[in-house]
Amino acid sequence: MDLGIKGRRAFVSASSQGLGFACACALANEGVHVTLNGRNQDKLESAAQALTQLVPGAQVSFIAADLCTPEGREKILAFQPEVDILVNNNAGPPPGTLDEWDETALLGALGANMIPAVQLMRAYIPGMRARRFGRIINITSAMVKSPHYIMGLSTSARTALTAISKAISTEVVVDNVTVNNLLPERIDTPRQEFMAKRLMAEQGIDRDEARRQIAQTINAKRLGRPEEFGAACAFLCSELASYISGQNLQLDGGSYEGLI
After folding, report:
1. Residue 212 half-sphere exposure, CB side, CA atoms within 13 Å?
2. By CB distance 3.0 to 4.6 Å, which of 26, 37, 53, 81 could disulfide with 230?
């Protein structure tokens, strides 16, 4: 299937590994010129090399900048002033409990998982509307729909992003600019390694058992593959997806128990 986005330009934030990198690979495979982003220059160089090995002939650039700061976002916009595709991603806050969620923690969650995405949308959407093509993907979390107590910080910040993105989507779709959210759960990335190590420490179990327990929380009884996630991102960025906007697509192995 030709997704019709060859030659388009994409910025994928927090993409030196994990879900962001998976989306960048899928887009590069469709002929999109991809800009990777992260805070570590060396890690980005390695990611860019890995991507070109996975996708021979891929057009890849990268910019080391901290999304969570105005200075970092200014650096990104100076390097990549216009894009056709924006994939918003960032690492989530650590698990915690109510006694830890003081004002500093709450503002930190919003500063990582809501504010940067909105500011990049503000910067890029006017050009997308003028060119009458834009695709925005926000990588949020399945817990936006099914909150878990210990992930309350992540859930709240990402839900705020979901709400404002829905509002934005209704205004910009007339100009062929779509805004959609991908809601992952238990995709096999470094995030799941972090969660496995946390479980190992809590229960005194080995890595295999920790990963088995994590997989058992999913109805498919396995972790999702990053390439499955990337493929969903690429389709929502396609010409063919122009009638899909303001939606939340769950990639959770059929685990969500709700109807809508």
Report:
1. 5
2. 26
Domain with 151, as residue range(s), is 9-185+225-244
Residues 162 and 209 in one domain: no
Same domain, 157 and 172: yes
148, 198: one domain: no
Compute and round to an integer the Cα radius of gyration of the chain.
18
Listed residue (123, 114, 251, 117) closest to 188, CA to CA: 251
Cβ atoms of 227 and 25 closer than 8 Å: yes
- Alpha-carbon distance of 181 to 153, in angstroms, equals 18
What's the gap between Cα 38 and its chain centre?
Answer: 13
Total domain count for the chain?
A: 2
Contact in structure between 241 and 6 (CB atoms under 8 Å)? no
191 pLDDT exceeds 90? no
If residue 228 lies in a helix (H) or strand (E), which one and from where to where? helix 226-236
Q: How many CA atoms lie within 13 A of 143 on its CB side?
A: 15
Mean pLDDT of all residues in 17-29: 98
Chain centroid, CA 106 distance in Å: 20
Same domain, 119 and 147: yes
CA distance 240 to 218: 30
Q: Are 5 and 30 in contact (CB under 8 A)?
A: yes
Question: Does the pTM exceed 0.85?
Answer: yes
